[in-house]
Input
Amino acid sequence: MNFFNPDNHTKSEDHKRLYAMCELAYTIVDVSAAVFFVIGSILFFSTATTYFATWLFVIGSILFGIRPTIKLYREIGYLRLDDYDDVTKS
Output
């Protein structure tokens, strides 16, 4: 198995299920981060809400940091579904 191979998600039904779950999580995180940034941007128009806007930006940034973690989790999941000896093969 090669890491980040686009064909990995088609190897079995378990691979397909893992791919679908991770894509759903990735999309939810992506949309949530975007919503936090948009709301935070709007809140920056008023000095009374700047503190809250800053926190929304921090939360959005953390969510954007979670995105690659989901992909890494998916690849490790693929590895768990496969034979570990395949990792050393090219």
About this structure: Residues 50-81 form the longest helix (32 residues). The CA atoms of residues 33 and 62 lie 8 Å apart.
